[in-house]
Amino acid sequence: MDRRQFVKMAAMAAATAAARPAMAGDKDPVDPEARRRVGSDVKWDKAPCRFCGTGCHVQVGVREGKVVAIAGDRKADVNKGLLCMKGYHVGLALYGKDRLTTPLLRKNGKLVPISWDEALDVVASRVEKNPAGFAVYGSGQWTIPEGYAAQKFMKGGLGCNHIDPNARLCMASAVTGFLATYGVDEPAGCYQDLDECDVIITWGNNPAEMHPVLFSRFIDRRSRGEKITLIDIGTRRTRTTGFADHYLEFKPQGDMAILNGIAHLLLARGTWNKSFVDKHCAFRADTEPGTLKGKAISFDEYKAGLAPYTPAHCEALSGVKASDIEMLADLFSNPDLRITSLWCMGANQHTRGTAVNTQLHGVHLLSGHFGRPGDAPTSLTGQPSACGTAREVGTLSHALPGGRVVANAEHRAQSEALWNVPAGRIQAKPGFHTVKMWEEFCKADGGVHTIWVQVTNPGQTLPNAHKLFHPSRKLDDKFLIVSDVYPTATTLHADLVLPSAMWVEKNGLFGNSERRTQQWFKMVEPPGQARDDVWQTIAVARKLYDRGFAGMSDKDGKFLFHVTDEKNREVPVWKWERYYDVNVDRHLFEEYRGFTRLKHKDLAPYDEYVRSRGLRWPVVELPGGGWRETRFRFSEFDDPYVKKGANIEFYHSTSGDGRAQIWFRPYEAPPEVPDKDYPLWLCTGRVIEHWHSGTMTRRVPQLHSAMPGAYVEINRADASKLGIQDGEVVLLETRRGKIELPAWIDGRGAPPAGSVFVPFFDESKPINELTLDAHDPFSKQPDYKKCAVRLRKRPGA
Amino acid sequence: MPTFGLVITPRPFGDALALLAQVPGLTLGQGGTRVPAVLELDSDDPGANALDALRDHPAVAAVDIAFADFSDLKEPIDSGVFARRRRR
Ligand code: SF4
Questions:
Q1: In A, which residues are within 8 Å of B33 by CB distance?
Q2: Which residues of A are tagged catalytic?
Q3: DSSP string, A158-221
Q4: CB B25 within 8 Å of CB B15
Q5: Are B28 and B20 spatial neighbours (Cβ–Cβ below 8 Å)?
Q6: Do A689 and B48 touch (CB under 8 A)?
């Protein structure tokens, strides 16, 4: 039998094992038959997938220092042995031939190789120039220790709050939505909701492509004959729509009207859940100027606010038929149904993202569809550790670890004590959020002189790039440092490039969409001189310490990243050759755990995550030993922090009485709408084949050939009006920029007449030169989903 | 030569499996509502294209991947996309 036949049999064995439901006694994460056929010289270990926020676990097969095989992890509750096409290619993504392997400094306009020591000196000098003007722009793809180290370096070391992650562009409105409603971030439910609900409503969300393994849970239930209704509410038909029982197409921003329409009908019909609301909810509305807490209002005021939102009025605002809004209200009126709402970028990348998020929670609370498995408002994350790192470690410019904020004196004091740094080190004023940080960087006299970018690609993903990215590159003394694994649209313009280790080339921990913290170990060496991002931060900190920079010492004069071995001897982890003498991730994670109790986001010791396929917080220690995760927060049957007999308790209530807040949010028009000059809507997003800006997935030939370049999806009616043929290159133009793209008519997605869609993965077609930087007033998250655009045949065509 | 271990959820109609059996390179295993399968591709056949085509096949509701082997890979991969990059 040749090797190919062996591999084929291994693949069939693994698929057969994954196709059947898990059985008691299934202990092996890779099917034993598949394992045997691949060969005993292949060593397997677990890791979460590098890509989306679903957080599937893969088994990584390594032979002779190289990743050679990938299998879905059968022991993983998230994906039960299955992966999507990106997950399969995650191993190949390590092996692009143009990996960055040496530090590069721009000299006379060209990036030239330098030593690590020289690179660290350059970064340290930029800090010393003026620490208050030094910023870090990080990522929801940072591992938890990477984000934690950067956070401590900036807020606890430099005393500078200018650190913000790209998660500002993807999840910030979900955060403010949870905070404004429950007083604490992140979903109450978990993926088990998808197994137990009767109805799934996707709100501007396309899980069939963006969270495919989660979506296949739904497909599986339906194909087993279970009755489960899918309602897709969106601005464009997608692969998700193909499986929907009802597709409700709304005008951009119309989601606000639909949600108010449902709440209006629940009240008008008297089918809201009075006993749930009386016991567990209070009402809230905006103040002028607005604050995240708003002001308390009475039930009658809430009802009066919703009075104008009749089905007919909401139809006029949203474009969704009144009868469909009534159908949604019928569902929410039925207490016997279990309804799961899913949303992601559609609700978050929205100039009223906080409002829409609170409205979504509000409809579930008002109807009592909350607190039972399958009955939950659940926001999904795009990135693998947007929750674990950006939200929980608190790498946002206003935040501190474990749900704390810099503006709160007590939180600052607690953080200073945990970091053992002098009182007053952490500044009370929030740093620059993403849009502001880049605005300041693009102004000659702006408050930021240097940005250190880690694990993200703002040169391609910042909105309105002609305003927020390109101008800085023409200013003297604006210095851009980028740590990354491949050349990107950002490294191309950087002053200093630092080569990073990727995924299983380093230790790591992620936190996925359902509060699940996941750990993995380094399995292979990074190429050339590529090094871990945690090490890079620590090594820069040490340079500063050695130069006498006071912020890099704690109160006892010890180095800020003082790491010891089991005999309590300091290990010089700032020296690369000593970095893996100890597990620095374990050290940082155990330190970070000290922050997590305050807001009941308790984490277990590091070694519990080594043993498991992730645990959902709060993870509490059991009286007899061992650790228990929590699937359903705020519900007495599962959450250990709910008082006995309370049934449901929102123990971080902003009104201080255990209640969640139901907000009244009026419909508001979008900041830019189509007009005679720019007559179409532009929406942007992802595709299944490519991860974000495509820097990893576009280097994989198979993924590249499946989706080689960006396009503009156009409705057939618009195309024929403009005389545009399928495949013809057209000119797309907004008030901020223009690009040329091939037209795709009746493509994978189908926008309605008057609307176009462009994916953002293609560096050569930088759609974010056209998008809008207008953002939500609370979350500061920009709106990538709607702006006005015109489309023309190419001049001379 | 990519080899994928797949889990296919066929659409619920009688001929779905018969239609799937005609897909080139696809070998179906025994299953219920989820069917294990192996997709073998020639070296010049773009793997993700074939997966995409399978996902859009009229008999298919969903395709998940359980296993992939790429131990034949000797050289670093190159899609050729980034060969001609330029600063703006
Ligand atoms: S669904 Fe997301 S986490 Fe799972 S394999 Fe695909 S990209 Fe990876």
A1: 220, 223-224
A2: 86, 170-171, 345, 382-383
A3: I----EEEGGGGTTHHHHHHHHHHHSS-S-SS-THHHHH-SEEEEES--HHHHSHHHHHHHHHH
A4: no
A5: yes
A6: yes
Take residue A553 and report the two structure tokens written for it.
């010492």
Helical H segments across A290-336, by residue range: 299-306, 311-318, 322-333
Q: Each residue of A185-202: pLDDT tens digit?
A: 999 999 999 999 999 999
Nearest residue by C-alpha to atom 5 in ligand 1: A87
Which atom of ligand 1 is least distant from the CA of A691?
7
Q: H/E element holding B36?
A: strand B35-40
CA pair distance A27, A35, nearest whole angstrom: 13
The ipTM value here is 0.88
Res. A20: pLDDT tops 80: no
Q: Where are the beta strands (DSSP E) in A435-526?
A: 450-454, 479-484, 496-499, 508-511, 516-520
Q: What is the pLDDT of residue A177?
A: 98
Confidence of residue A713 (pLDDT cuts 50, 70, 90): very high
Would you call A706 and B78 a contact, using CB atoms and an 8 Å cutoff? no
Nearest Cα of chain A lies from the Cα of B23 at a distance, in angstroms, of 16
Domains and CATH numbers, chain A: 3-90 (2.20.25.90), 104-168+393-512+525-579 (3.40.50.740), 172-380+660-664 (3.40.228.10), 680-793 (2.40.40.20)
User: What is the CA(A137)–ligand 1 centre distance, in A?
Assistant: 25
Average the pLDDT over A362-377 and give the result.
97
Which secondary structure element, helix H or strand E, spans residue A116, and what is its range? helix A116-129
Q: How far is B18 from chain A (nearest CA, A)?
A: 17
pLDDT confidence of A25, banded at 50, 70, 90?
low
| DSSP, residue by residue, A369-422 | --SBTTBEEEEPPSSTTIIIIIIITT-STTEEGGGEETT-HHHHHHHHHHHT--
The whole-model pTM stands at 0.95
Candidates B7, B28, B45, B84, partner chain A, best to mutate (most A CBs within 10 A): B7
User: Which CATH number applies to B3-65?
Assistant: 3.30.70
pLDDT value, residue A408: 97
Chain position carrying tokens 């002098």 = A422
What chain B residue is nearest to A239 in terms of C-alpha separation? B56
Question: Given the structure tokens 């994954």, which residue do they identify?
Answer: A18
SS (H, E, C) A568-603: CCECCCCCHHHHCCCCHHHHHHHHHHCCCCCCCCCC
CB contact under 8 A, A11 and B3: yes
